[in-house]
Specification:
The protein is an alpha/beta fold. The protein has a single domain, classed as SGNH hydrolase (Rossmann fold, 3-Layer(aba) Sandwich), CATH 3.40.50.1110. 43% of the residues lie in helices and 15% in strands. The protein contains 9 helices and 10 strands. An 8-stranded mixed sheet has the order 9-8-7-1-2-4-5-10, with helices on both faces. It has a two-stranded antiparallel ribbon with strand order 3-6. Strand 8, helix 7 and strand 9 form a beta-alpha-beta unit. Helix 3 crosses helix 8 and helix 5 runs parallel beside helix 6. The radius of gyration is 19 Å and the shape is globular. The protein starts with a helix and ends with a helix.
Length: 247
Amino acid sequence: MKFFLLMLGIVGQNFAYSNTLVIGDSHLVGPVGTELKSQFDSRKQIATLYGSCGSTLEHWLTGKPTTCGYLYNGVRGPSGNTPLLKGLLELHRPETLMVVLATNYGPERRVEQLPEHLRQIKEVILTATQNGLKNCIWSGPPGVRPYSRQLLNQIEAALISGLQGVCDVIPVQDLTQYPDGPGDGIHYRVDPHYDLIWAWTNALMQTYGNSNRTGVTVKPKPRPEYPPLRTIKPKKPWIERIWDRVF
């Protein structure tokens, strides 16, 4: 019996391991994350994605909840606590960490918080290198419409300075200039922004390929067909569930 439980624990532990851990904000919850997962799958690379809508690094350092949606390892939900990056690194023990967290430092002068957040997250990443983490790839801010070029450059410069020697920061502003027309100016949609989504994710994957020797660039598709994800629906109060069964 003890042997069986020991083997079960080993299997469960190995199952959690992943080549790459990806964390991010609402972009990762949406089409950008879906396209990234598709590109990892096409290279036969095991990647585990965690996206927390509205998040900054503070969420991943403290467990601050999201109220606008999440995507945690293939499961979507409307709200919930953001997992700690330290815990995810210990659970999955990836060789590569990829981060898509920059957009939410634009509003309300949050960019002033970024250097301190980077100092704390840098310590977490350096600790993870003792458990096998070899590479870190960090997306710079995309060219979203509400923020000035000056502000986006400020965020990007803070990332490069704060992560020097730890993570490769990939500039993506010029690849992702949000056009006038449909959309909220921040969140990219498959229609009509697929070319921008692909350019962004492909820039990250090219760096990933160079770091991990995974092969050639994936060519763009005219319109991808993504498999559906499971969704967690909020539970009704227990009295309502009993009422529905009886009546």
